[in-house]
Amino acid sequence: xxxxxxxxxxxxxxxxxxxxxxxxxxxxxxxxxxxxxxxxxxxxxxxxxxxxxxxxxxxxxxxxxxxxxxxxxxxxxxxxxxxxxxxxxxxxxxxxxxxxxxxxxxxxxxxxxxxxxxxxxxxxxxxxxxxxxxxxxxxxxxxxxxxxxxxxxxxxxxxxxxxxxxxxxxxxxxxxxxxxxxxxxxxxxxxxxxxxxxxxxxxxxxxxxxxxxxxxxxxxxxxxxxxxxxxxxxxxxxxxxxxxxxxxxxxxxxxxxxxxxxxxxxxxxxxxxxxxxxxxxxxxxxxxxxxxxxxxxxxxxxxxxxxx
Length: 308
Ligand SMILES: Nc1nc2c(ncn2[C@@H]2O[C@H](COP(=O)(O)OP(=O)(O)O)[C@@H](O)[C@H]2O)c(=O)[nH]1
Ligand SMILES: [Mg+2]
Hints:
Order of helices and strands: EHHEHEEEHHEHHEHHEEEHHHE
CATH topology: Rossmann fold
Number of domains: 1
Bound molecules: guanosine-5'-diphosphate, magnesium ion
Number of helices: 12
Strand content: 15-25%
Strand order of the largest sheet: 2-4-5-1-6-7-8-11
Radius of gyration: 19 Å
Largest sheet: 8 strands, mixed
Number of strands: 11
CATH superfamily: P-loop containing nucleotide triphosphate hydrolases
CATH class: Alpha Beta
């Protein structure tokens, strides 16, 4: 029997949804696989699609500067990346489906986004750190838009859920402790209404895990550009080491959410009459141990902040 869990990426366009998913390359999958002691596999066609995205990100590091016209194009439709989890030499018992959605759906097709969120155990919210730290977007409208889908999306909350904030484009903000404290303080103040809502909603856990998906670049300034007839501020990065794609801390959001999912799976499998026997025969022990191991691995990342 297979159990399915959904993970939905939620953020306006350009915050880093597709880039984060594209970071899940073979190396990361292998590292995660040895951390959890289980096999992880992605359909080869989907893995190739992520590889193509990553190739574009790597290419963006070939010049001296990176603009918003380098890297990945914005996504027009939803994509799904089911990650199959299995014991060695057996069929998958768990499928974790990562779902990427176009950012404009939050305002243009809210009903669809809400139905995605309602069927998700984990919601990952990338936050463009460069935009938030330089006040180049209308934070209030962005946060209101997110909250208007999150509130109904988290109902009904009988099953535990995880809302994971992943500040992206953090290359400049994780260089010192003082800089990362400023970033955290800014996120806590801008997203306060969302954090308050999460804290008051039962069964919802949340954490902030900053990442750098490109690495080896540094924010220079923001430039006004016209996209779809709209003027928006976009970051320009200088490349500190050419051709060297160097993602940092990218494994922690994956470890954290897999730990959460394995815990849910453990709790569900333990329930009822069958659960009693599964527990008695220690069949579930590996889930519990793996969940604990992943959790302690995440605690080693000092930038990880638990909200609830
Ligand atoms: N420097 C840097 N750039 C990033 C990072 N994440 C995303 N980007 C840039 O932001 C652009 C837009 O990201 P994308 O993932 O397409 O955003 P989406 O619209 O939310 O899917 C990418 O093409 C990258 O150039 C990051 O961690 N560091
Ligand atoms: Mg995208």
